[in-house]
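Record now logged for everyone:
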Amino acid sequence: MHERYGPPDVLRLADVPVPSPGVGQVLVRVAATSVNLSDWECLTGSPAYARIGGLRRPARPVLGSDIAGRVAAVGDGVTRFRPGDEVYGDNLALKGGFAEYALAPESVLAHKPAELTFAEASTIPQAGAIALQGTASAAPGQRVLINGAGGGSGSFAIQLAKRSGAHVTAVDNAGKLEFMRSLGADEVIDHRERDFTREGPYDLILDLVAHRSVFAYRRALAPGGRYRCVGGSVRTLLRVLTVGQVTGRLTGRRLGVLAVKEGPAHFGPLADRCVAGEIGIHVDRTFGLADVPAALAHVGAGRALGKVVVELGG
């Protein structure tokens, strides 16, 4: 847990009482929790939107939203689950996954597919929802670029875009180029060596780490093309929402922020495709509960190839 924003060393292990589920809540005995970039942002308090609900101190001292485990108890009004059920979901509002037990609203959870391990299931909810919605418009013959493609959401997005029949360009650091090729990317770019906004043009850009000028993004789009970002600096996001939409419309291009829809209906379809063998799940490495600071540092430094998982046992 952490009581102030900062680097991984502000985290500490602590014994706290096992919580009791309230109305509509489920108590999950956590078996695995995957690490998302949002966890790193909430740890450091940057960008500024990561402090929503807790400007000076973290609103949720225990991080970890993508959880998988077994139902330990249910609160009043819960009808879809009972103790012993294997579940998974994105507990973004309450978090608490880097612990032995976590409370989650019934609505964010789904029954875990029996074919997936807890670790595999934990990689899907948040990253899967982003990847599915971010590549939903990809079509055969289109040129699709994914920026930040070597991480969790990107590793799913590459595969989904390729399955749609698109030509996929994947951008990340040099240490991830071969990994992105192995996922099916037709072309890979080291962002330190080449500026993707001066290449293309692309029919769809999914930007998972937006930091550039909206005019650069517009330049990289083909007429009728679409740019969607998820995360990035507050300054960039605001400019995309304002200047980007206006300048894009004037030139026949669409620039905007992807408003990610959450919940089982939005990540379940990816789990089905993983079970069917259409999409692969790539876990870079696993950590124990005591090593959560190292797991977060690995993701925050941009070193993760696919997903990083914290396992607490099955």
